[in-house]
Amino acid sequence: MNVLKQENFVRCVLPGVPLPLGKTGDYLVHYFKENYNINIEYLDAAKTLSGYGARGGRIDQIFNVKEDSIDTFDRIKSEIGALYAKEVVRNKAHHVYMERVYLRYFKRIEDELLKTGEISDEDVYQTL
Questions:
Q1: β-bridge pairing 83-84 and 59-66
Q2: pLDDT at 88 > cutoff 50
Q3: Domain of residue 49, residue span
Q4: Final residue of a domain: which of 47, 67, 87?
Q5: Domain tally, the chain
Q6: pLDDT tens digit string along 21-67?
Q7: Which of 19, 66, 71, 83 is deepest in the core (most CB within 10 A)?
Q8: How many CB atoms lie within 10 A of CB 23?
Q9: Same structural domain for residues 58 and 107?
Q10: Of 30, 46, 67, which residue is a domain's last?
Q11: 3-state secondary structure of 6
């Protein structure tokens, strides 16, 4: 699969999965390592904006899958409900995040997809 690699990782989203109470991103790092032997870098837990039906008001985990684990992650991502950030932008689902989250985690991907013609100007995140 052709995914947008940024440096030595691929950005991913695990939608609708809050971390257990009292746990930090280290929990997800250890979970992927212990259960799938996948190396990730945890980035953020982002709450989506309300007003988007089932996609609104949920907690999504944003993380990078390190290059040495991309093939393994690709095999399990559908099973666990994860998405590549590139898929999120291509499906116009990056609009459900606050502007800070968009700018930090999705803007570069959006710019690349716009440049290659995979999305159009009307698909671009609208800031206030």
A1: unpaired
A2: yes
A3: 1-67
A4: 67
A5: 2
A6: 999 999 999 999 999 999 999 999 999 999 888 888 999 999 999 99
A7: 83
A8: 12
A9: no
A10: 67
A11: strand
